[in-house]
Task: structure prediction
Amino acid sequence: MTEAPPPVFDRSLARRRLARAIALGKTEDFLVARAAAELGERVGAVKRQFSAVLDAGTPSPRLSDWAAAEIRPRLLARMAPLLAAAGDKGPLRIVGDEEALPLAPGSFDLVLSALSLQNVNDLPGALIQLRRLLKPDGLFLGCLLGGSTLQELRTSLAHAEMQIWGGISPRVAPCADVRDLGGLLQRAGFALPVADSEHITVRYASMFGLLADLRAMGATNTLAARLRKPASKRLFMHAAEIYAERFSDPDGRLRATFEMIFLSGWAPHESQQKPLRPGSAKIRLEDALALHRAKGS
Result:
């Protein structure tokens, strides 16, 4: 029997840090707002009325609030680990975790998720569970942070540690690559899987402004392999100098990149388009190309 791989994220710590940000009343959700707006546009492009909708794990009620106002489904559920702390007032609140969804298969015809899946330890497993929640021909739309996210901060901290101590420690979480996520959707059993990304640049007066926003998102370092002792002021001051030197615009403000990857996939249904079987084409590619050249001559 093979052992499960060690966890990448300390999920319990992530929940405590989000709860602390909420309790202090300093939550920052501009990324969730951006993701919710884009997911809303994509739902609007689907010519269908959805009657049972789940918001799976979004760290604020912004996405479920949008669904309540714009989709107006018969059933709207929001599942997250910190609903009480967030003051969530959705029609149906479910305390749960994306890694162990406490919901019956085939319960929803639309599942949405914004900026939570990048923090699960088993992303393929989470996608399989989300697909199982869908009714046949149900739609999943999600957004998670991709591999280019915080590349400037990662580089600055790594160089500062190398220069001070001659080595680096895990400080910025790894994120999935958009090129891999289409395949993960397909492996999870989704039909017509699509993954695409966009990069957002947010500018700050200093690296410490970025760190303040990350704390307000509850998005500071929750890697299981992180160093347990507090980082020194010297490290962060030196990293801030490197950040300003390498990633500043002409006006002196600093760039921070967030890569947002959007996922979509359908629960299989006989009505959906299917690829042709190999060998079933009515004309050879060579003949088609010759015909095209003949028409153009």
